[in-house]
Amino acid sequence: MTDRLAILIWAATPERPELCVTPLVHALAARALDAEVEIHFAGPAVRWLIADIADNAWGTEAREKSIGDFLREVLAAGASLYACGMARAAWITEQDVLLPQAGAAGATAFVARTLDPAWRTLVY
Question: Most-buried pick from 4, 37, 62, 103 (CB within 10 A)?
C-alpha cells in the first residue's frame, strides 16, 4: 500500500507567510519518501493559490524562496493542491486567477481523508 498524506492549510494565511513554509516543507519531505500528497487550502489560506499573492510573499527575512517558489516545487514533486469551495466563494474574487493546477475539494473531502485508515493528515 502506498503511504498517503493529506495536509490542510487554514491558519497559515497570507498575512503570516512564515507559517506556510512548514506545511510545504512537510509535503516535500513526504513526496521524497514516495508518499502520495494532497494539500487542501481552506479559509483565507485559499488565497495562497493566487500566483501574485504567493510570488510576493516570503517565509523568511532572508527571502531565499517565495511561497510561490515552494508551491511550484511541491507541484513539480507531484503533490496535488485543492481549494475548498466555501473558502473560494468567500476569499477569491472574480478578478483573482488561481494556479491552473489547483483542483477543488471541500471540507467533506478532507474529513473523508481523516477517517480513511489509508491516509494520514496534518493540519496547519
Answer: 37
What does the CA dihedral 45, 47, 51, 54 come to, rounded to 10 degrees?
Answer: -40
Residue 40 is part of which domain span? 4-123
* Sequence-ordered strand ranges (E) for 31-79: 36-41
Q: What is the DSSP letter of 34?
A: T
Rounded to the nearest angstrom, the gap between the alpha carbon of residue 44 and the centroid of all alpha carbons in its chain is 12
CA distance 32 to 12: 23
pLDDT tens sequence across 25-74:
999 999 999 999 999 999 999 999 998 999 999 999 999 999 999 999 99
| CATH value at residue 14 | 3.40.1260.10
Cα 40 to Cα 61: distance, rounded to the nearest angstrom: 26
The overall average pLDDT reported for the chain is: 96
Q: Sorting pLDDT into bands at 50, 70 and 90, what band is 114?
A: very high
